[in-house]
Amino acid sequence: MRQRTMMLNAIRGHLAEFGIITAQGPRNILALIAQIQSEDRFDLPDIARLALLGLAGQLEALTNEIRALERRLTAWHREDATSQRLETIPGVGIVTATALSASIPDPSIFKSGRQFAAFLGLVPRQNSSGGKDRLGRISKMGDGYLRRLLVVGATSVIRRKGANETATGVWIRSLLERKPARDVTVAMANKTARIAWAILTREDVYRSTPTT
Asked: Is 78 exposed, middle or buried (0-12, 13-18, 19+ CB in 10 A)?
């Protein structure tokens, strides 16, 4: 997906060099590429047009690979009970659920959800100064891929905070009144990691707690 985004940005940048401006977003860029392929209304030098069509071919190949991988992940997810249980957690989709299930076959190696979150680098570093422990930024140690997936999922949960009538929604809104959004996102990712550990350990599904 990162490669695809880089390719889209490269195509958009090359087009801008020739005065062809398009709005951001894959759909807009792909529509413009289709016009270049089927029409001759853009005043492009032949070599530039060939180069852009070459990039478009690479983009199409990447897109096909992504779709194939998504189909394989979906098929694996449908056959894996643990992955399906993890998907019940808000902010955890198929990609995150399959990654957690495949990466953590034995959750008992972690004594607690906090230890699992620490393994992912989602707990603050502790710094000692003058005999006092101070919490700094998150450690970012451990599995960076799982950490990124959980942070992305946490971001989506926070974006829907207004419609979230569960205890988690209340908790998010309360934190946002006191802390920057970035800190709240990490806190949500930490919470998700702890919930994931509990589900992996107990072989249960996520059940939200409604507000009373």
From this structure: exposed
